Amino acid sequence: MVAVAPPRSGHRPASPATLAELERLTDRLSRKPAAHLQVESLSIGYSTLRGRFHAVEDISFEVPAGTNLGLVGESGCGKSTVVKTLMGLQPESTEVSGRALLDGRNILGLDENALRDFRWKRISLITQSAMNSLDPVYCIGDQISEAILAHEPVSKATAWARAEQMFALVGLPAGRLYEFPHMFSGGMRQRAVIAMALALNAGLLLADEPTTALDPIMQSQIMTRIRGIHAHMRCSMILVTHDIAVVAETCENIVVMYAGKVAESGPTADVLERPLHPYTMGLKNAFPRLPIRGEPRQPLISIPGVVPNLLLPPPGCRFASRCPFATEVCHSVTPPVVQVGVQRAACHHTDRAAEFRLAAARPDTWRNMRGAA
Amino acid sequence: MRAYIIRRLAQSVLVVWAVTTIMFFMFRVMPADPTAILLERGLTDEARQALLEQWGLTGSLWDQYVAYLANLLTGDFGSSFLYRKPVWEVLTPLIINTLWIAVPGLLLGAALGAAIGTAVGWAKRGGKLERSGIFLATIIRGVPNFVIGIALLTIFSSTLGWFPGFGMGDPGETTGFARYMTLDFLHHLALPLIAVIIYFMPENLLLMRSGVVENRTEDYIELVRAKGVPQRRVAWHAARNSMLPLITWLFPALAETIAGIVVIEIVFSWPGVGRELVLAVTRQDYPVAQAAFFLLAVMIVIANLAADLVYGKLDPRVVYK
Fold this sequence. Notes:
heterodimer; A: alpha/beta; Rossmann fold; 2 domains; eight-stranded mixed sheet; 13 helices; 12 strands; B: mainly alpha; MetI-like fold; cell membrane (chain A); membrane (chain A)
């Protein structure tokens, strides 16, 4: 461990004026309401040398103010693309259609100046790879202050004092604000990025796989912290992850994405209790559970095959080639979105979901697929 | 940090000593007679011998070398054969003249190159600014610097007549520093200074551009954009990180550029130390040539040391051991 750096020479404790300004700032920020986000038929397409394709196609979901939405799916299914597009960070040539209403105002297709109006003020981001997300030549405190100063008319000292508050919130000593990213461990960097995301109490927090780069113990610590902060700040959040267990613990609602489309969505408890889509069933089985004494060991079942090439998407259901229950219609007709109770699923056979759930729990159901696929 | 500087200084002294030694023997193995330039004045054999003795060119090479080093340690570079004056007296005004075009030229060249390079690197890929920026920089980079000088002379001196094309003007009555504070001097300074800037800028520009292009797709730039700071500020983050490779290149490159300034001094007949260096070599004025090379070596060694120290200031990850 690196020793805690002494405060930079010339640094004095905050003056009374700074403290008064900080209190006004904190008060102002704490009165920001949680944001409401409504995404309507969002499609995101890229033009490549081998043709155009849709990384995300016609997805819709809602994040009611103050709630937590889990966006899950395997790598390459378009989760991060959605997050980047909401922030306006997609590459220039990207074609975006649909709407994303943030507190009723569409935030898609804005120019850089209009984007600045809500970035970090209303939506902030916890990035996927905190290892590379911090500028290596500025100390952490400067990088957090930069975000505050860009949006709030406060002095540099006040911005720094606010950064100290945020560091306390994520459990880092204030003295380390003077340190540079390379002096932090991976977990500390992730916490610094979280502190930065919280600095302006944005109404909506986008957490893009915030724990992927960390070891399991750090992962659970960071997730516990994010949950605590979320409860404390009462903001809305979208949590992107491929860890279904994290979503089960953290999020009220879940959206399961597959190959750029929504496979299933609804309240997390219902979706994980009674999945309607075979992909959700497979995803649920593919997570390890510790054996419970006296009960049979739960086998770990993986879904055979890979996500289809989106340049040439297969006709019909995109999951059909990997689905053990696929029938003729699945390979030819795009499945409609079916509402069952509070859940929605894009599957032709939602009426047989109960039967599928039993079969999906048996490893040989998926194993027999492997030959066919 | 202090131990590091002391070690580097010791190494620097070694390098300078090596250069001095090589220079000393190189001039003396050249098959030439330094008294030749004086021969036409009807030099007798005895007088010639007396001159050689006075210049310290008699005795064994080893004795000459030891005497030279001993003098050097006391700051004595000897006397110019041609001017019959101590080398310091000959070189000091010339060094000042060279600094007038070298220091502002290199600083402005590096600063302008870095600024334009950032703009070009941050511009839309494949856009007009990027394409014309790279095109111009590459063209200028490819042109020999005497061509730049001659082109400037042709256009601004011969054709338009805006600037004088020769020397640094008439000193008139003024002496000392006041000599450089005249409009006439600045008028003469303009063209060679512009030539140095144009000569030094393109490589800075291209290096900075490639750094910015590389950095703009980094994750941390994305986060800076997400923070909602002005575009200019985002570009600054990319530029700030691109300065690191630029600095690594910049200081050692100064040495090469100083060689380029010699050419520019000759094209513009600028009475600088570079021009004198070339003349001294052709005249076999050993003390002047050796002193000039000695100064060059010292400057290059200092530039390299400065590069390492500045790098440590710019990049917090660098640790001196």
